[in-house]
Amino acid sequence: MQHVPHADWLAGAATAAEQQGPGNLLRIVLIVMVVGCVLTAWFLLRGYRRKDD
After folding, report:
1. What's the burial of 24, exposed, middle or buried (CB within 10 Å: 0-12/13-18/19+)?
2. If you write DSSP's letter for every residue of the chain in order, what string do you get?
3. Sign of the Cα pseudo-torsion (40, 43, 44, 45, in order)
4. Domain ranges of the chain
5. Positive or negative, the Cα torsion across 10, 16, 20, 21?
6. Residues 6+ positions from 25 with CB-CB distance below 8 Å
7. pLDDT value at position 30?
């Protein structure tokens, strides 16, 4: 079998991901959810701004 350096790196990354768990993915999902909620609230509430013209 030929030695492929990328395969070793990929196998090592897969092993590290299994040991680490869902921490980084969960962190990214939570950040995206919070930013999405803030943008949605801003978009919906900007229509209620009072215009005193």
Report:
1. exposed
2. ----HHHHHHHHHHHHHHHH-SHHHHHHHHHHHHHHHHHHHHHHHGGG-----
3. positive
4. 21-53
5. positive
6. none
7. 95
Rounded distance, CA 43 to CA 40, Å? 5
What is the model's pTM? 0.52
Instruction: Please say whether the dihedral angle defined by the alpha carbons of residues 42, 46, 48 and 49, taken in this order, is positive or negative.
Output: positive
Question: What is the model's pLDDT at position 40?
Answer: 95
- State the sign of the Cα–Cα–Cα–Cα dihedral 8, 11, 15, 16: positive
3-state secondary structure of 35: helix
* Average pLDDT estimate for 2-16: 64
Per-residue pLDDT tens over the stretch 12-40: 766 766 676 678 889 999 999 999 999 99
